[in-house]
Every structure is written in structure tokens, then in C-alpha cells.
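Researcher: Please predict.
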Amino acid sequence: MSQLRSFKRQSKFSRLLPLLGVVGLLQGATLTAGELTETDLLNMLLDNDIITREQAQQLVDKVHQRRGAPPTAKTGMAGMESRIKAADIMDMLRDEGLISEQSYQQMQERLRQRETAIKAGKGDDAAAGDVRVPYLPDYIREDMEQSIRQRVEVDVVEKVKDEAVRTARVYGWGIKEAPSWVHKVKISGDGRLRYQADMFPDDNAMYGYPDYVAINESGEEVYDNVNDNRYRFLTRFRLMVKAQATDRIELGMRITTGNEGNPVSSNQTLGDFSSKWDANFDLGYLKYTSLEEEVELLGGRFKNPFLHTDLVYDSDMTFEGISGSYYFLRESSPFSDENSWDPFVTIGAFPLQEIHSSIANLSEDAAKLVSETNDRDKYLYAIQLGTHYEFLNTSKLSMALSYYHYDQIEGKRNPYEGTDATYETASPYYQVGNSVFNINHPNDDPQIGLAASYKLVNATVKYTMADFFPTYVFLQADYVKNIAFDQEEVSALVGREVPDRDTGYQFGIAAGTATLSYIRDWRVSFTYRHLEGDAVLDAFADSDFLLGGTDAEGYILEANYLLYDNLVSSLKWISADSIDTDPDDQLYNISVDTLQLSLQASF
């Protein structure tokens, strides 16, 4: 053992470790099937310069001479197939002075004791392929324990250091005289790149997609092209800032790309000869949340506060005004059985259009009409009753009944030639689908207004099924009816027979991971939609389905996959047709297939 310790002092630890392992193995029983072979042992000694190649060949020759097989080219070290005994290796190590005679005798004694114990426990018929655990001397175990301990300490220190650095960055530790607001502000955002192809059949109506916004601005008939396929690239970039003004008050602002006159889309079409993009605030609000979170109040411009799908309102739609929600059971004990239920009521008032026209230089009758019009500010009033229910397996059911009342949304006819007495009753934004009429005097340029009233009853159900965890199933159903639609009145204003078109419904199913935030998260979905022309306000409806608006039915297929954390790729196929089709009337027959390929990153 003294010679081995001398060898350890004179050699590098990396050179000694294989020898220590060999010695430990040699203190076990004779090598059996599945253990190290003679070639493995000798190559390990050779590779670590513990023995020379000449010494290894001498050992091989010795083994063959003992077994009566003279060494040949085929029975050299690389070609041997016979087993080498532990004693052969021990003899060589002793003869070369790598271990002392005392250590040699100790290992021989341990070898005999181990073979005796094995025979006593398993008999002489032990299977040749049985796994045997070699005995490791104390000094080898100590070296291994020390090495493992050092590695664990290094790993722990690195992880603690990384976590400390991340925490310091979040809370601003180490920043000299960091202002208090740094800890109250959260910044997030996202950016999306999209390729979109809108494909039209040959028999689409040439005049089937009027641009009412352009008509009201120019006074001329303007139509979008729904006959030639359109291929384009779009982007959307958004930056959100939230600040905790007090413990209960949150301030939020978001800036986004997109056309400021479009309430339902933040997309920016590329290809405007490198003109600068538009940027607008689409969120800006104050939010109050009570201590028990049973009361929530919002004011300003904020996300849709109601339980919803994209049947009635586009997913990018934001609301201006005030809203409040009350959750009836959130003050109860968290251990109560009632805590699984979360019933709520949400109400809101949202100004849509302020009207304040001048009466200067108008006749008395026209001035009176303008004054009446000035009292017709347009509002949306809404109330929703609903509940959430969470099952023991984390499945969740949400359902709600809503009422949306659009006040003074209809256009009003102007009987006075040469005046704009009722111009303000025309809506500032349209898509396509609602019943409309010319509110202006017949001798003046056309001005388009809504012919129908809109008072919507909406029932929404969503169910998240966790029974197939980690895959979730998402179900949704939505139904809406415009109870204010009057077919005779609308037909009279439009000047032709208008069908009964006051109902919409949608159902969908999706499957995938619970979130779309982490690498390899995924989700696939199918949605079917039927939305009649005056079921909802087309200005706020989905901007992608049949190019946006109402009077559309069809389906949506979508697949999402996370390439990295917070980097989602998506493929979406939308196939939609107009509902009010007439083979004999080519003014209204429209079909559109839309393909969207998107890549979105967020932080």
C-alpha cells in the first residue's frame, strides 16, 4: 500500500483514478459474463500509462502459457477471447512494483473471503451472467464522495447565484437609489409577423363588398375587390405598461400598430412604399380591485370585460367607458363548498359617438333637426350575469347571459337638400353585412346609415376539460339574437325586401396544452359560425371572417405550436360564404378562403 500511496503522490489524480478503480474491481470475484473483459482492463491500464504495452503483452503471453495455448498473431492481446483472472492482474501489478507485497496479500485474502461468501450464498451453480457488485476500499469511496460533494456544491452555488441575480433584476437590488416606482411597473409586449392569402372564386359578385367608410368620405360608390386573389404581409407590434399606483389601483397603457380608424384590427399591411407605420393607444385605463377581489371597477379604454367568444366582438376589440363587476361568493371562506362556484354580474356604459354639430347658417327647421340630432349621442349599455365553476380535477365551466343595448345607433334621414343636418347619425366605421340606407337627401351625395336597431341577447358557454391531462379539451358554444330587428321597418328604409336576419351562433372544439407560453406547447381547433346580417353590429364583428363583418357562415381551422418559450407559430384556414345569396342576384354572392401563417413572440 505504501508504494501505491507513493504512486498517488507522484502522479496526477486523473491518472491514478483508473488504477484505483481496477484495484477495487480486482478485489471482487472472478470476472463473469457482462463484466469487464481482459481487453477492457488492459486497455484501461494502457490508456492511462499505468503499464506499458510490453508489460501488457507479457501478461497475455503468461496467461496463454499457463493455459497451454502458445501465443500467436491471432491470440495476441487484441484477439484473445479467453477470460483473464483477477489474480493475473494482481500478479502483474505486484511484479511491476505498483502495489506492495503486503497489499497484494491483503487483496488475495479478500478475494478468497469473497469467493467463499459467494459460494455459500449462491452455491457453485451461480449463473454466469449474474451481476456482482465489486468491493470498494475506503480510500476509493472517500475519493468518490469528495468528488461528488464538490460537484454538488458547485451546482448548488451556481443555481443559487443565478436565482439571486434574477431576483435582484426583478426587484432592483443593488441599483443605487432606485426610485420606488421601479418596483411597481411591469412592461410586456408582443410582435407578430403574418403572411395572408385571400382567395376568391370566379363567380364572386363584382359589387358585393361596398366600402361604406370610403363612400361616406367621398360621396361616391366605392367597392373592395373580391374577384382577384390578394397576397400580402402584415405585422402587429404592441407594448403594454402596467403600474401599481396603490395597493388597489392599477394604471395600464398599451401602444399598438394599426389604423386608428379601425376599432377591430391592429394589423399593419406592408408595402406602402416604406411609409412610416401608424401607432396608437388602444388601451388606457384605471382599475380598482377590492381586497377580497369581489369588486372590480374599470374606467378608460380597456379589454372586453365580459365573458365572450369572437362571435359578437372581434378579439382585438377594446371598450371605451366604465364597467364594474361584482363576484358574489369571493368573500366566503376558501374552505367552503360554495367556493367552487364563482357567480358574477358585470355592467358597463360605453360612449360610441358624441354628436355636436353646428346650427349656424341653417334654416329654422334644419337647425331644429340638428339640435335634435345633437341629443342623439350613441352609447352601448351592457349587463351580463354569469358564473364560473371549477371541478376537483381542475376542469372549469363558464357560462353567462348578456344583454347589449345600442342606443341611438340607427341613421336618421335628412329631408333638407344641401345641408348635412343628420350626417352625424351615420356610423364612422362599417365592415359589411348590416342593413344600411342613404340618409341624405336624394339630390345630395350619398351618406350611409344603419337601418336596423340593435338590442342583443347573448348566451355563452365555455368548458375546459382536464380529464385527459396533460392534454386539455376546450369546448365553446355561443348564441346571439337581435331582438330589436324589425323586418318590415328595415325593408322600408332599404327600399327592397330584406330577409329575417337577426340570429347568430357558433360552436367550437380545441385540444392541446393548458397554455400557449412554453416550448412544445400546442393547440388545434375547429370552429363553425353562422352570423346573419343584422344579428350583431358588423363594425365590431370578427375582422377576418369573410374579410370582416356579418352575413357570413363557414368554418375556421387553426393549429398553434410553440417553437421556443413565448414564440408561437400558427396556421389558420378560414372558409366563409355570404348567407343572403341569390343565384339570380349577383350583387350579394361572396365567398372567401383565407390562409394565415403567423409567427408571434412575446415577453
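Model: The chain has two domains: 2-136, 181-602.
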